[in-house]
């Protein structure tokens, strides 16, 4: 894996992650922040408590917060699991490590709560203490009232939530790598015509299996967003044609030819065309185009994918051709369809 691709902004879609982060903070009652491997924030602070907000905006105290974030992340890396600790103000914080190919790229920091049973705090490490007690004493008068507003949780609740966040982060990183990281490297590698060039960028891969992997990922993305209508592929009553219908609905991102479908059904292309027209009332190319436009409408409605990406996800060779086909059946461009749908 190439180190330049292992930056946290390459792995996470930070805009979408922040939206999820906000929801998680609301549900769990924890403040959540994502940082890079140095402890520098890469997202806004979701659900930040007023006490911590005041501490973090104080230039004399903020650096202690960043040091806690950095050291907490490193401690989590050592154990490769959530690390629960006390910050410099004796408040519960959690570090969720983000590790790829044994490389630490950042962490999801959660916390800003007090333990309902303070006896459990004795087993937790205070990760950082300051020798400059004068600063803390001077600030305490302004901070004390906000400290009392911090939410409380049992130690068991903190552990349960930290494990949930760890599993969620691992899942998101895996999905992001499968879809975004490898596709990015594929684009870089696409200009290489020799296998040695590909191997230098993606060790262990060849042009053939990279293209196959990209096709599988594209199929997965389309299927993940499209509504799954049970029995969709069972619209066919003719058993001879069923393999073709099953293939169409399971390979939405592919450009499918009539001959390939005929071969799949073990009949000639001309006989396949006659059976298909009798079954659907449409010729094969028209039916396939209409299905792809139906799926495109779903993607326009439920995702913020660019039109060019939807075109790619549904196997159109060119975004211009996709727009032309969409307008043929819907009398409107994809962009306008999305705008009118969302304005309803």
Key features of this structure:
single chain; 344 residues; alpha+beta; Arc Repressor Mutant, subunit A; five-stranded mixed beta sheet; 5 strands; 10% strand; elongated; disordered N terminus; PocR_dom; PocR ligand-binding domain-containing protein
If you had to describe this structure to a student in words, what would you say it looks like?
Strands 1, 2, 3, 4 and 5 form a five-stranded mixed β-sheet that branches. This protein folds into two domains: 170 residues; 115 residues, Homeodomain-like (Arc Repressor Mutant, subunit A, Orthogonal Bundle), CATH 1.10.10.60. It is built from 15 helices and five strands. With 344 residues, the chain is of the alpha+beta class. Keywords: DNA-binding, Transcription, Transcription regulation. It comes from Paenibacillus puldeungensis. This is PocR ligand-binding domain-containing protein.
List the SSEs and their pairings.
Blueprint lengths: L7 H4 L2 H15 L2 E6 L13 H8 L1 H21 L3 E4 L5 E9 L2 E13 L17 H15 L4 E2 L1 H35 L5 H7 L5 H19 L16 H9 L7 H7 L4 H12 L3 H19 L4 H7 L5 H12 L3 H10 L1
Parallel strand pairs: 4-5
Antiparallel strand pairs: 1-4, 2-3, 3-4
Helix pairs in contact: 3-5, 6-8, 10-11, 12-14, 12-15
């Amino acid at each position: 894996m190439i180190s330049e691709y292992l930056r946290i902004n390459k792995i996470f879609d930070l805009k979408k992650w922040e939206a999820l982060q906000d929801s998680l903070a609301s549900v769990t009652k924890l403040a959540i922040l994502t940082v890079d491997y140095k402890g520098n924030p890469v997202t806004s602070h979701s659900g930040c408590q007023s006490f911590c907000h005041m501490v973090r905006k104080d230039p004399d105290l903020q650096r202690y917060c960043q040091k806690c974030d950095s050291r907490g992340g490193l401690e989590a890396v050592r154990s490769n699991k959530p690390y629960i600790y006390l910050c410099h103000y004796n408040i519960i914080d959690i570090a969720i490590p983000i590790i790829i190919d044994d490389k630490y790229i950042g962490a999801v920091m959660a916390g800003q709560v007090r333990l309902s049973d303070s006896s459990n705090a004795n087993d937790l490490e205070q990760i950082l203490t300051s020798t400059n007690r004068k600063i803390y004493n001077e600030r305490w008068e302004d901070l004390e009232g906000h400290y009392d507003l911090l939410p409380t949780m049992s130690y068991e609740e903190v552990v349960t939530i930290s494990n949930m966040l760890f599993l969620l982060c691992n899942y998101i990183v895996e999905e992001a790598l499968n879809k975004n990281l490898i596709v990015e490297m594929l684009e870089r590698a696409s200009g290489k015509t020799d296998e040695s060039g590909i191997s230098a960028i993606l060790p262990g891969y060849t042009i053939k299996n990279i293209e196959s992997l990209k096709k599988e990922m594209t199929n997965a993305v389309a299927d993940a967003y499209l509504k799954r209508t049970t029995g969709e592929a069972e619209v066919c009553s003719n058993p001879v044609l069923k393999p073709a219908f099953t293939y169409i609905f399971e390979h939405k991102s592919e450009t499918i030819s009539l001959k390939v479908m005929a071969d799949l059904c073990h009949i000639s292309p001309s006989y396949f065309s006659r059976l298909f027209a009798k079954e659907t009332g449409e010729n094969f190319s028209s039916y396939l185009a209409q299905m792809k436009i139906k799926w495109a409408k779903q993607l326009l409605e439920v995702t913020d994918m660019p039109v060019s990406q939807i075109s790619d996800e549904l196997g159109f060779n060119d975004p211009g051709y996709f727009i032309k086909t969409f307008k043929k059946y819907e009398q409107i461009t994809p962009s306008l369809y999305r705008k009118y749908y969302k304005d309803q």
